[in-house]
Backbone:
């Protein structure tokens, strides 16, 4: 089992009801979320079959697309277009942490950390 892929699948399922709500206000932003979610899954799917730097490159693409989803949710939230994205955000936070580890090999440290 590839945990990051499973979490990405869960994320897409959580985004599924949010996209139509956002689409009522901004079709392009909704489409961007859909494309970014698909990109995360496709890059994870391809990356898990690769090795070395090539594998890391696909995981990095997935990380970028996941970050794009976070920004899109922040944008929709700032406009007041979605009511409750807490579950999607929780799954997204977990996915971003997993992807960080796949790309960088260690967990991200908080900005105020003194390690």
Residues:
């Amino acid at each position: 089992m590839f945990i990051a892929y499973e979490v990405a699948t869960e994320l897409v399922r959580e985004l599924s009801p949010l996209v139509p709500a956002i689409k009522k206000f901004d079709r392009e932003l909704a489409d961007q979320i859909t494309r970014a979610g698909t990109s995360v899954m496709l890059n994870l799917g391809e990356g898990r079959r690769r090795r070395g730097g090539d594998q890391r490159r696909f995981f990095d693409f997935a990380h970028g697309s996941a970050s794009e989803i976070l920004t899109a949710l922040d944008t929709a939230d700032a406009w007041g277009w979605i009511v409750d994205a807490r579950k999607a955000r929780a799954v997204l936070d977990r996915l971003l942490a997993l992807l960080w580890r796949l790309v960088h090999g260690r967990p991200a440290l908080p900005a105020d950390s003194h390690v």
